Amino acid sequence: MDHMWSRVASQLVARVSGPMKFRLVLQPVMASFFAIRSGLADARAGRPPYFWGFLSNPAHRIDMIKDGWKSVGKVFVLALVLDVVYQLIVLRFVYPGEAIIVAFVLAIAPYLILRGLATRLARTNNVRRQQGPANTPILRE
């Protein structure tokens, strides 16, 4: 069992310097784009930040999963396929567990983090905009 985890760790680290390393930047950027877009839509609709709402509101959890998957599902599948291609080129074997770990780290994790952050920042910006400038001097003639 220890041998398996050391193999997984070493192969995950090897992906950083191996072929197709462009995907390690491209896929989180794509996930970030979809997360920010969805987070801004959440703020406009008055919904809670995504991950917090997912954890705290079990009644709407299934709907939230469907909405999140609709946004980031293609990026996740692309990350999965590209990692399988990487494994076939470099390792000449496919480890499905490693492919799922890599796809999760490259697509789902940035999406979960940034969607809620975008929602919070958009709400804060909207509140400030509604309140107006704080200490604006009044000009008298």
Structure description:
This protein is mainly alpha-helical. The chain has one domain (19-123). It has helices spanning 2-14, 23-45, 50-56, 61-90, 96-131. The model has no long low-confidence stretch (mean pLDDT 87).
Keywords, separated by commas or semicolons:
141 residues; mainly alpha
Quickly describe the structure.
77% of the residues lie in helices and 0% in strands. It has 5 helices and no strands.
Q: How would a textbook summarize the main sheet?
A: none
Count of alpha and pi helical runs: 5
Rg on CA atoms, Å: 20 Å
Strand content: under 5%
Structural class: mainly alpha
Number of domains: 1
Cα(first) to Cα(last) distance is: 81 Å
What is the helix/strand order?
Answer: HHHHH
**Mean pLDDT across every amino acid position:** 87
Unreliable spans = none
Number of strands: 0
Assembly annotation: single chain
What best-fitting shape do the alpha-carbon axes yield?
elongated
Helical content band: over 70%
